[in-house]
Structure formats: C-alpha cells, structure tokens
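Provenance

Sequences were taken from public entries as deposited. Structures were produced by running a predictor on each sequence independently, with no templates supplied. The record for CyP450 monooxygenase from Lentinus tigrinus ALCF2SS1-6 is shown for reference.
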Amino acid sequence: MVSNNQPSASTSAGIALVIWFAISYALSVLQWRARKRGLRFPPGPTSLPFVGNIAHMRKPEPWKAHRTLCDTYGDTVYLPVLGQSIIILGGPRSISDLLDKRSAVTSDRQQSSIIPLAGFDANFTLMPYGQRWRRHRRAFWQHFLPASSLRYVPLQERSARLFLRKLLDDPSRLCEHIRYTFMATIVKVIYGLDLAETDPDAAQIEKMLEGLQALTPGKYLVEFLPFLQHLPGWLPGTGFQKELGAWRSATVGTKEGLFQRAMKEIDKGVQTQSVAAELVEGRGVDIQDEDDPIAKEIPKSVGNVAVEGGADTTFSSLQTFFLALSLNPNVLRKAQAQLHAVVGPRRLPVHADRENLPYITAIVKECLRWHPVLPFGLPHLTTQDMEYRGYFIPARTLLLANAWACLHDPEVYPEPERFLPDRFVLENGEWNTKVPDPAQFAFGFGRRICPGRHFAEASMFVYVAMVLHVFDISPPLDAEGKPIQVQPKMTNGVVSYPEDCRCTITPRSTWAKELILSEGV
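Predicted structure for CyP450 monooxygenase:
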C-alpha cells in the first residue's frame, strides 16, 4: 500500500489563499509607507486594534470632547475609526489652512451609505465635489445672493408677523410656531405655495427634518460597515433600516409632492415668481442640451435642499434666541430700549431698520456664536494625499471642523459660556470690528460654505426684532409660580438644538398687544 503524502486540493487552495493575503497585505503596507514618504500622522490618542478611536466619535456633545483632545494634542488630531482616517480641526488656523486655502482638494463629501438610505442623496450639500455639485450649488446661489435675498424680505416680515400672532394666541406652543412659520416661509419662497399647518406636506416635512436631526457622524455602524445595509432587517443590529427607510420615504415624498403641486400652479399661470418657477424656466440653470439630466433634476433637488436646510437651521437658531433671552433679562431690556428709541410704539420694526439697530444684530450674532446650529459642520473629504505641518494626511480622510470650539475660544470671545451680545458693540454704539464675526464659523467653510446664509441672517433679524419689540421673555414657571432654572444644553446631531427652550412669553403692554392685532397677516 502506497501512502499519499500529497496535500489535498482544498489544503493547497487554503495555503494559496493565505499566501495571497500575506502578499497583498505586504504590498499595501509598502504602498502606504511609500505614500507617507516617512511622514507621521498628526498626533492623537492611542487607538484600539480594528475599531480604532470609535469611542471618541460616539460621545455626547462630541464638539466638547474633541476640544479636550485638541487641548492635549493640538488643533489637528488624528482619529482612525474602523479603517477610516478622521482628523479633527480644532482651531481657526488649521480650518483656514485646510478647508479654505486648500479647498480644491478638501471639498469632497464622503458618500456614506447613510445618505441614500435616508433619502438625502439628491441634497447637493452632501453630493461629491464635482460638476453635478457645482451646477446645483450655482443654481441655488444665484437665487440667494445678498442682493437677490432682498426680494424675499416682504415674505420674511409677513411670516414674522404671523409668528407674533400665534405667540399671542398660544405661547405654550413656541417650538411648533417657530417650526411652522419658518417652514411656510421657505415653501412660499421656493415653491410659491401657501402651506397650512394641517397640510399633509407639513407633516411629511417634519418627518424629513427628524431624519436630518438624527444624522450624527458615527451614530450608525452602517456608516463604517456598509454591508450591514444588506442584512435581513430581523437580525440584531439592523434596526436602523426601518428608521432610515421612514426618513427616506418622507424625504422623497416631500421633494416630489411639493414640486408637483408647484408645477400645477405654474402650468396654470397661477404663480410665476417662485424660485421653482424660475428654475423650471431655466433661469439660473446652466442647460447644456435638451437631454441634460442634471438640468432636469436641479429644479426639484434645489428646492428640497432649501426646505431641508432653511427650515431646520433657522428653527434651531430661534430656539436658542428664546432660551438666551429668558436667561438674560439685562439683554432683553437693552434691546427693548434701542427698539423704543429707533422704532417707537406705533409700528413693528422691519428689515429696513437693521442699520439703526446694531444691538439687535449683535443678539443675532451672539445666538450664532453661543450655540452654533452646526457645531461640527459637515465633514469634508480630501481627494489626494497631502502634507500639512510635516504630517501626512492621506486621500479620503474626513476633516471635521470644530466650529463650536472656535466660537468658544476664550482668547477670542471672553467668557464664551455667557450670552454677551455687548461683545460686538462698542460703548458708543458702533460695531466692534475687532471681534470676529461668528458667521465665518457658523455657516461652513471653503467651497462648502452655506449659500443661504444671507437669507438665514435676514430672517433671524426680522423675527428677533419684532419679538423683542412686543414681548417680554422670562424663565418658565413651575406649578407654584416659581421660576424654573433651565440648563442651556444642546442636542447631539448634525443640526443641534437647545434641549429645553421653555420660557414665559407675555405682551409688553396693552399697546404691544394692540400692535400685534392691528398688523395684517
């Protein structure tokens, strides 16, 4: 009997596979070392095998946790997570150097599996950097330039007057009134439609915005392990599928529903002044040929981006305003004194008063600084390897700009935890040009800066000025009528909100109440 000492076919295949993996790994290591050219990664905390620094990405209020990291390691901190390179930019210098000065190679977006799962793949703020993104953004920007935004002022003022009336009728529904009036304004500007509170589209928009609020970087493992989206929904760890699916349904439904409603009115000639009507006609759209697919999607997608971004971010800022004023009666009194001197008791302030109301503008700026809507902004993605300060930053690295940390730098904004609009205004009433404008951090960076920022600040000014002119704002009261001390904490999420903005809202006097009732809406 002759023994067979030859390895089996399966054993040979296994050995070959191991050799292939070993060679592939060795080549990848050699290639990686060649790309690094002897450079080190930026400093950062020790990472665990395989998962890296995932724990640092899943902490509550990550902007505070990451500022602590930057205090230890500097303003450029390296955090690898499940094979993804992430760098925290913790100060104005690193943010400007990388996101502004090198924007040609740091303006991409990571195409996370979360984006299409939640229905936000048609949102140009999340699109990859390229021709499609440029054309969508250009179409949007042309309708929201500083000069272009002035034509929306009458709608913003009308919306603010409606808000006053709703607050007078039922101040306990503050958040619902903010959400609805801003939402209705955006829908009117973009689609030319009047949106009632009971409109089914209003409920669908609410659901869509709920999805935006929940999208915190690192919250869902599927962001780092895309294969999870293909697993059966009944398996443990796949509960995200149902949640993201509901948001996708609402997002797609909002985009299609509002656009089709607007098209019916446009076709009938009922309205021609909306952004959607102008985009459909080709105004602001770079149409390259009759079958240009990007030109066809722009009117629908651009409109939905405005609803997603405009209603949500300004909603957060105005909540911050009410929270701040309820905690700072001295700011309230000073603002009301300026309004009385400039506007008087016989009319409401309007956008045209802005130049003569610097303290109201200062309050708006301080809201942006004190609790920024996007404390971490939206992550940028590098498109090529680069060297920065002697460190290696590989292509496809996520850059997270900690806007909150910049806006809470005590060397730039003394006593950053306090709400102090006076920091922006000198004693003689002139604007303090030595204090950086929070808008340079609050609205994004480089080529990804928010194109609707002028519209947003104008809306905030009108709302803040009108509210302060006719209402007093104070802390909420408990069942015994005693003031409740609300803690100024913020929610996690890409868009962050005050956790609690309860307050007591009352007309300043009889004349204020009569003024609200006399203004037509």
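The first strand starts at residue 76 and ends at 78.
The mean pLDDT is 86.
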